[in-house]
Amino acid sequence: MDWFLIFSRAFEAGIGSEAIIYCLAAIGLNVQFGYTGLLNFGQAAFLAVGAYSIATTVATFGLPFFLGVGIGLVLSVLLALLLGIPTLRLRADYLAIVTIAAAEIVRIIVRSVALKDTFGGTDGLQEFAHSFYALNVFPAGQYSILGGFIGFDHRGMWVLLVGWVLVALVSVILLFAMKSPWGRVLKAIREDEDAVRALGKNVFSYKMQALVIGGVIGAVAGFIFALSRSSAQPDLYSTELTFFAYTVLILGGAARILGPIVGAALFWFLMIFVKTGLEEAINKQVITFLNVNQVGAIQYMIIGLGLILLLIFRPQGIFGDKREIALDAR
Amino acid sequence: MHADTGFQSRKAAALAAFEGLASEPGVPKPDPILVVDNVVRRFGGLTAVDVAHLEVQRGSITALIGPNGAGKTTFFNQLTGFDTADAGEWTFNGRKMSGVPAYKVARQGMVRTFQLTKALSKLTVVENMRLGAQRQRGENFFAGLIPQLWRGQESLITSEAEELLTRFKLIAKRDDFAGSLSGGQRKLLEMARALMGNPELVMLDEPMAGVNPALTQSLLGHVKNLREEGMTVLFVEHDMDMVRDISDWVIVMAQGAVIAEGPPHTIMSDPRVIDAYLGAHHDAPLSAEEAEQQLHEAEAELTAEADQTGMDGNSRKESGDERG
Q1: Strand pairing partners for B55?
Q2: Transmembrane segments in this chain: where (chain A) (predicted)?
Q3: What is the pLDDT of residues A31-66, one digit of tens each?
Q4: Are the beta carbons of A200 and B140 separated by less than 8 Å?
Q5: Percent of the residues in chain A that have a pLDDT greater than 70, as a whole number
Q6: Nearest CB neighbour to A209, from listed B82, B141, B193
Q7: Residue of chain B whose alpha carbon sits nearest to that of A175
Q8: How far apart are CA A38 and CA B228, in angstroms?
Q9: Could you tell me which chain B residue has the CA closest to the CA of A200?
Q10: Min CA distance, A103 vs chain B (Å)?
Q11: SS3 (DSSP) at A15
Q12: In angstroms, what separates the C-alpha of A196 from chain B's closest C-alpha?
């Protein structure tokens, strides 16, 4: 078995564009779920809004790339307001129901036949990332990191640079925000919103702010998703994306700044490690009772088993505080 | 002692204000801080609250009592904006408060605690306290990003919080999670946290529920202290000993309506109150069989009680010792 190949593929995935996309999506969820206790099950919709804003602005209407970025940010704010106004005054579970439905509505709209001229139907949209790659600071060629252990081409390097800079920027902003009295109000709302109301805080407004901020970060994840693939396809924004983002968040530890970052890197490292490992083992006849076509399913079984064990033995995630979990048992 | 004389004068002032008031529901007070008119709340066919008129005297400790299901907590929820009333209006310091959302009610200086204590478990004790402070600059997202804008205010808030924690004997728990406190300590924390907003009217929903006798004494002291500092206290309670001990005036609710008001030492002998607690016809004549049956029940109860008297006597003596 080629362990070098297995590890280099896994490391590439751990710092690659998937990790960045899921990291940003999970950071958004961390603001909403981790800190404020809002169950947003429609994060995929915010990514779709981000991705399709750039794609439609550039590919369909031929307008500038940065206008698309601006439209994406504005639309994600509007989507958050649209979801929040009717549901945030109600119990937490209503938001979960409405967001999961909204995410599907967004996906079905962008893949609809009636709007094929605008959104491209099930094929989605391509040819919109030129302006982004025109800004690339890396000259064309292959780049190897860690002495050739892992490597990316110049486009990949540009995505990684922009992506991780955005992750760092968002994380630093949230680090300051969550240490401030503003962040304290969010955490208090997660614990008991009536108590916070009784202390004179406008709970509705804070919940809305959390929903909007998390949604905007989700749209940024959508930008990276679309640009890294130079393509926006509707079925990539299914509810599965949201649940993987939750997995990343819980793996790393909710309500921790580093949680989603380490969670995303580790999640994608393990996903590709298991997949490449199985494929190698089958190709080299180490495992003979499986074939390569079954790897996809087995991969999810193994990752799922790992997550179950994590929740049993370390429910707070990697960065969580065990004392906090113990409080719930009282 | 100095504190004692102040204590006595505030209590005397409060009692003097109630001097000569009729024990009628809705009797006007000399200086009401809270005035309630025709508040109605229905849940389907059930009228949970139907209060025609009620005034709460400024600077007093007023108890709100009544049998289970009398609508006391629902009434509290109406007044503090946690539930919307079907009809009626009320004013606090002359300002209309009906239809005002809960957080604005609290900002106006009318804060409440809850029957089921709401300590914010995963926040530390001192963070719980800081949250209670009003008009914090750092509670705006953008201002929060620039610590220079709110650090000064935060340290003022923290020293205020530490002062209150010292007074409520929670300072040793300053950096513990609020979730790790005992039930009684959570009650203390909730009360202390409410005081961070410098309220004028403190509304306590069953402050003594689930608190052990030793802590009850300290809680009672704190409630008396609130009046001492010029605050008005309105509280719901079941424990009549406590009501007699600390309240200056008692309001009795039954089936959603205020049925009587009066000073604590006479209110429990008011026939309307006895009727509300024991049923209107508890002393009406019975038929021969009913009388016979009641006699048997009473006898059975007496023998059961005789068996337990020893134990009860002991425990009462112990709690008496703690108070001394």
Answers
A1: B35
A2: 6-31, 38-59, 65-85, 92-110, 130-150, 157-178, 208-227, 248-274, 294-313
A3: 999 999 999 999 999 999 999 999 999 999 999 999
A4: no
A5: 98
A6: B141
A7: B145
A8: 42
A9: B103
A10: 27
A11: helix
A12: 8
The answer to whether A77 contacts chain B (CB < 8 Å) is: no
State the Cα–Cα distance between residues B121 and A192, nearest whole angstrom: 9
Distance CA B172, CA B179 (A): 15
Residues 6+ apart with CB under 8 A from A204: A88, A89
Residues 6+ apart with CB under 8 A from B138: A180, A181, A182, B144, B147, B149, B150, B153, B154
Reduced to 3 states, what is the DSSP secondary structure of residue B206? coil
How far apart are the C-alpha atoms of A121 and A110, rounded to whole Å? 6
Q: At B234, is the secondary structure helix, strand, or coil? A: strand
In this complex, which of A173, A181, A197 lies closest to B150 when CB atoms are compared? A181
Nearest-neighbour CA in chain B from A86: distance (Å)? 17
Q: Is residue B284 a contact partner of residue B51, using CB atoms and an 8 Å limit?
A: no
For residue B239, the model assigns a pLDDT of 79
Q: For chain B, how are helix, strand and coil distributed in percent, rounded to 5?
A: 50, 20, 30
Residue B1 has a pLDDT of: 41
Residues A295, A302: Cα–Cα separation, whole Å: 10
Query: Rounded to an integer, what distance in angstroms lies between the CA atom of residue A18 and that of residue A240?
Result: 14
The neighbour count for residue A173, using CB atoms within 10 Å, is 14
CB atoms within 10 A of CB A290: 14
What was the pLDDT predicted at B55? 93
Nearest to B13 by CA among B26, B31, B27, B33: B31
Instruction: Give dist(CA B124, CA B165) in Å, integer.
Output: 12
The answer to whether the CB atoms of A187 and B122 lie below 8 A apart is: yes
Q: What per-residue confidence (pLDDT) applies to B314?
A: 47
Cβ-based burial of B170 (10 A; exposed 0-12, middle 13-18, buried ≥19): buried
Among 1.10.3470, 3.30.70, 1.10.12, 3.90.1200, what is the CATH number of A3-328?
A: 1.10.3470
pLDDT at residue A328, rounded to an integer: 60
**Pairing between β-strand B257-262 and β-strand B249-254 as defined by DSSP bridges:** antiparallel
Asked if A199 lies within 8 A of B194 by C-beta distance, the reply is yes
- The closest alpha carbon to A192, from B131, B175, B71, B174, belongs to B131
Mean pLDDT in each 10-residue stretch from start to end of chain B (324 residues)? 56 82 84 93 90 92 90 91 90 91 94 89 94 94 95 96 94 93 90 93 89 85 90 89 88 91 87 79 65 82 75 45 41
CB–CB contact B118 A182 (8 Å): no
For residue B111, the one-letter residue type is V
Of B239, B248, B170, B173, residue with least CA distance to B211: B239
pLDDT digits (tens, 9 = 90+) for A176-188: 999 999 999 999 9
Sketch the domain layout of chain A as residue ranges: 3-328
Beta bridge partners of B63: B235, B250
Nearest to A44 by CA among A241, A233, A221, A247: A241
Q: Which chain B residues are within 8 Å of A176, Cβ to Cβ?
A: 144-145, 147
Scanning every residue of chain B, which has its alpha carbon at the shortest distance from the alpha carbon of A324?
A: B122
Three-state DSSP at B319 gives helix
* Residue B292, pLDDT score: 80
Using a CB–CB cut-off of 8 Å, the residues of B that contact A are 80, 82, 101-104, 106-107, 111-114, 118-123, 127-128, 130-132, 134, 136-141, 143-145, 147, 150, 154, 177, 179-180, 190, 193-194, 196-197
Task: Name the residue among B113, B25, B18 with its Cα closest to residue B58.
Answer: B18
